[in-house]
C-alpha cells in the first residue's frame, strides 16, 4: 500500500524564497564531492556541495579546505588540529606547521544527484 510521501506545488509552504536565494548567497560557492570518505555524514561521490565562506568554522563542522595543493572535504577537528573523514577506512590527518592549509568554507548543504546534468560535466 502506498502513502503520500512528497509535497509539491502550493502545498510546499516552508520555502519562503526561491531555491537560488535559499541556498546561494554572495559568500557561497558550489563544489562536487568525490570519493567515499564522507559517506558517514551523508556526502556521497558526485554530490553537489554548497560551501559558505562567511561561516565561522566550528568544531566538527564539515569543511572544504585547500591542503597541500589539494581541495578536500573533511570534518574539522578543531581541538586536535586535524582533518577527519567520516569513514573509519581513512585515518585523521594532523595539520602540521609545514603544511599549506587554508579553509575555503563550511559545507552548509549537499545535494544528491540522481541523474547527471550536462551543465555539470556529466
Overview of the molecule:
The chain has one domain: Umud Fragment, subunit A, CATH 2.10.109.10. It has one helix at 19-23, and strands at residues 28-32, 48-52, 62-67, 70-77, 82-84, 93-94, 101-111. The termini are far apart. The chain is mostly beta strands. Pfam families: Peptidase_S24.
Brief rundown of the structure:
The chain has 122 residues and is mainly beta. 4% of the residues lie in helices and 33% in strands.
Task: Supply database-style keywords.
about 120 residues; mainly beta; Umud Fragment, subunit A; seven-stranded antiparallel beta sheet; 1 helix
Task: Quickly give the structural class.
Answer: mainly beta
Strand order of the largest sheet: 1-2-7-3-4-5-6
User: What is the CATH homology-level superfamily?
Assistant: Umud Fragment, subunit A
Q: Which second-level CATH architecture applies?
A: Ribbon
- The helical percent reads under 10%
Order of helices and strands: HEEEEEEE
How much beta, percentage-wise?
A: 25-35%
CATH class: Mainly Beta
Number of strands: 7
| Integer count of domains | 1
Sheet with the most strands, sense and barrel status: 7 strands, antiparallel
Distance between the termini: 36 Å
> Radius of gyration, Cα only, in angstroms?
17 Å
**Could you name the ranges where pLDDT drops below 50 across 5 or more consecutive residues?**
none
**CATH topology title:** Umud Fragment, subunit A
Gross morphology is: globular
Kindly report the average pLDDT value. 85
Number of helices: 1
Amino acid at each position: 500500500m502506498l502513502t503520500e510521501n512528497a509535497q509539491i506545488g502550493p502545498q510546499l509552504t516552508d520555502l519562503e524564497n526561491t531555491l537560488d536565494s535559499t541556498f546561494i548567497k554572495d559568500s557561497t560557492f558550489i563544489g562536487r564531492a568525490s570519493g567515499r570518505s564522507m559517506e558517514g555524514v551523508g556526502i556521497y561521490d558526485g554530490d553537489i556541495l554548497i560551501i559558505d565562506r562567511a561561516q565561522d568554522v566550528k568544531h566538527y563542522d564539515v569543511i572544504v579546505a585547500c591542503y597541500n595543493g589539494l581541495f578536500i572535504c573533511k570534518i574539522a577537528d578543531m581541538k586536535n588540529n586535524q582533518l577527519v573523514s567520516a569513514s573509519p577506512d581513512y585515518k585523521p590527518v594532523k595539520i602540521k606547521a609545514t603544511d599549506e592549509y587554508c579553509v575555503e568554507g563550511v559545507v552548509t548543504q549537499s545535494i544528491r544527484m540522481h541523474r547527471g546534468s550536462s551543465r555539470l560535466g556529466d
